Amino acid sequence: MTGSATYQSVFLRDLRLSTAHSLVTQSGAPGQGLPNETPTRYLQALIDGLCELSLRDPLTGLANRRHFRSVLEREVDRMARSGEAALLLMLDIDHFKKINDTHGHIAGDMVLQSVARTLLGCVRPMDTLARYGGEEFAIVLPSCQATYGRAIAERIREAVESTMIRVSPALALNVSVSIGGAYALQWIRSTTQLWIERADNQLYQAKSAGRNRICIEEQPDSTVSAEEKSMLFGPLSTYYPPADVDRSTVPLADASGRHTGR
Q1: What is the model's pTM?
Q2: What are phi and psi of 155, to 5 degrees?
Q3: Quick one: 122 and 142 in the same domain?
Q4: Does 218 qualify as catalytic in the annotation?
Q5: Which position among 37, 75, 135, 218 bears the catalytic label?
Q6: Which ranges of the chain does DSSP label H, i.e. alpha helix?
Q7: Which strand (E) or helix (H) includes residue 93?
Q8: Mean pLDDT, residues 67-86
Q9: 86 is a domain residue
């Protein structure tokens, strides 16, 4: 808004809110309605509800791809600043097309919902679990050290494999998942697309190797030493003489700070 913008009252009766109202109320808990004490509270609750719907997958209730990508962008930025490890897991339900073809799409939807609930029971509150698309899911795990990544992925794989999914009174199914993973590059401002591609490549390898297994990319050694951090974040005056000093008389320094002469 600019300084010259004018404000005027808006009456709810002049807005077409019936569709938005239905979407928000139908997606909430039974009996939970929008507040109606004041028009402002009602409208704010309606806007908040629509924002929440725009970030959720309607079938599983998980974060959707839009929300997932925004979380991934923040995590890449945090990684570049802090250097803490973070793991991205991409998961795909094995032979899902066969489930749809054999038992129907309703059974397929029930499988997706069941797997989503199982995955929710395997992640921490700080993790982000999303339905990436179709039968594929994604999990962003901040502060996940390389020594624990494979164990976490194996626990997820076992949990899905051991869960019986009842799709009708006479039919129960078991499914498995293939999992690919990649760590964010520490101290490097990479891109979300590159991170996804690296994890997706590992998922492809897991499926090519027979499915129902895990492939996690080896994390490169990106440890930054104390001396390197000092060079990256220390004051420039440590390495560069003031502007009024004849630089030809100042000895050079190597990466460790030792003078090397000319």
Answers
A1: 0.75
A2: -65, -40
A3: yes
A4: no
A5: 135
A6: 18-27, 39-54, 65-82, 96-103, 105-120, 146-161, 192-208, 226-233
A7: strand 86-93
A8: 89
A9: yes
